């Protein structure tokens, strides 16, 4: 078994995994809402797994109703310290706006060093449609 895991993350000398943790509770009540208000969505039940220095967030389908001029959907709960990157980590995702998934322009997901997860409609910070469903679903993997 240790040969399978060898090389994924090391303790500096042995080449063996030095850290493993999983958490289905810290972000289980996370709700997203627009940065300028609006109705928060239902609880997200985000699961987190860390193997060595690699963290994976498995985020189910999320939706909320952002208010006018909201450019970001923000999670109301921070990830645990052991899952936070040293700097912002960003990935591309397909985002729902105005109750439909936008397939022509990619949105962004970002987790900060403070453990806050944010969703951007696009790279230009375009506002989500007022009072219409916005959301996403993704799996984000990054290093810490």
CATH-wise, what's the superfamily? Phage tail base-plate Siphoviridae RBP, head domain
Q: What is the helical fraction, as a range of percent?
A: under 10%
Alpha-carbon distance between the two ends: 24 Å
Q: What is the CA-atom radius of gyration, in angstroms?
A: 17 Å
The number of helical segments is: 1
CATH topology: Immunoglobulin-like
CATH top level assignment? Mainly Beta
Write the H/E string, N to C.
HEEEEEEEEEEEE
Number of extended strands: 12
Largest sheet: 7 strands, antiparallel
Strand content: 35-45%
Main structural class: mainly beta
Architecture, CATH level 2? Sandwich
User: Which segments are poorly predicted (pLDDT under 50) over 5 or more consecutive residues?
Assistant: 1-11
In words, what does this structure look like?
There is one protein chain. With 144 residues, the protein is mainly beta. It has a single domain (9-143), classed as Immunoglobulin-like (Sandwich), CATH 2.60.40.1830. The chain is 3% helix and 42% strand. It has 1 helix and 12 strands. The protein has one helix at 2-5, and strands spanning 20-23, 32-34, 38-39, 47-51, 54-66, 72-75, 89-93, 95-97, 100-101, 107-111, 117-120, 134-143. The strands form 2 sheets. Strands 1, 3, 4, 5, 8, 9 and 12 form a 7-stranded antiparallel beta sheet that branches. The chain has a 5-stranded antiparallel beta sheet with strand order 2-6-11-10-7, with no helix packed on it. The two termini are 24 Å apart. The model is unreliable at 1-11 (pLDDT under 50).
């Amino acid at each position: 078994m240790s040969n399978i895991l060898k090389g994924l993350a090391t303790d500096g000398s042995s080449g063996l995994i030095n850290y493993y943790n999983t958490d289905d509770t810290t972000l289980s009540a996370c709700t997203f809402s627009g940065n300028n208000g609006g109705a928060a969505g239902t609880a997200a039940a985000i699961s987190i797994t860390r193997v060595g220095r690699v963290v994976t967030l498995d985020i189910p389908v999320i939706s909320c109703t952002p208010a006018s001029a909201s450019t970001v959907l923000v999670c109301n709960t921070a990830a645990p310290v052991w899952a936070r990157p040293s700097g912002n980590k960003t990935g591309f995702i397909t985002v729902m706006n105005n109750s439909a998934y936008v397939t022509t322009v990619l949105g962004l997901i970002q987790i900060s060093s403070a453990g806050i997860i944010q969703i951007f409609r696009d790279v230009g910070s375009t506002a989500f449609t007022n009072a219409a469903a916005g959301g996403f679903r993704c799996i984000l993997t990054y290093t810490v």
